[in-house]
Structure prediction request, 315 residues.
Amino acid sequence: MAALGWLTPRRRSATARSVLAGEASAEAARKSSQDVLDAQDGQGVENAPAEEPVFPVLGDVRAAAFFDLDNTVMQGASIFHFGRGLYKRKFFETRDLARFAWQQAWFRLAGSEDPEHMQEARDSALSIVKGHRVAELQSIGEEIYDEYMAERIWPGTRALAEAHLAAGQKVWLVTAAPVEIATVIARRLGLTGALGTVAESVDGVYTGKLVGEPLHGPAKAEAVRALAAAEGLDLARCAAYSDSHNDIPMLSLVGHPYAINPDNKLRRHARELDWRLRDYRTARKAAKVGIPAAAGVGAVAGGTVAAIALHRRRR
Prediction:
């Protein structure tokens, strides 16, 4: 996969570690996508929404869609929900859960990623899984999805992904979450596969280190670039969706960028460049796009209150 870097132009902001992380994620995604296809064999996409008048283009196999996960596809941070599941299985102590809860509450209230908080969460997760087998975490990820994640998928964003699938295009998650967890989520949503942070493993056991760096910011763009080259995609015909200004490098790669539940910086950037926006977080905006507002807002508010309350009880 390292040889793929020269196939498409690259922004200078990408570091060598970003390129390594992106290419490792693309390789892992392509390996896992066949498993996703096998699991979907014989299953159709339910309730596929009506396509937009022009996009996505039916039958354009050189187009694909790339979706950020946290706060774009799923309410809140997937790493927090994963941490809750690991705590339930006694992977770590109560004080660590309180920290995860506080990070999640901040994430929900701020509506964007704080690099320091996200780095702390990833470091905690790496230390927790060190010495555990990859297969074990994959199996646990299936259970955690059912317990904590399934009910937190934004219906509006899922409808956008299903529109691409209905048009015959591949759809990938692109996230800083561990690729094993991201792949579980992608498969459960009926997507093609996932690009995620690749944790180093030796003989199927996690070492507590990463391959390159977390799939964040420029690294996401590198992963999309590498996957597009390997899959023969035309990025000018592809779409990307995200809530965060940190993903502007990825959004800028494609011909059809969308700002979903955008933070303030991304909203301003999207308006300046006339990118499409979708916001499923408020009653007014949810009604505008046909999403049940009470369910979405209630889930966000309830999750925030629960996280803060948990943090206070544990102090």
Observations:
- Residues 1-12, 36-53, 283-315 have pLDDT under 50 and may be disordered.
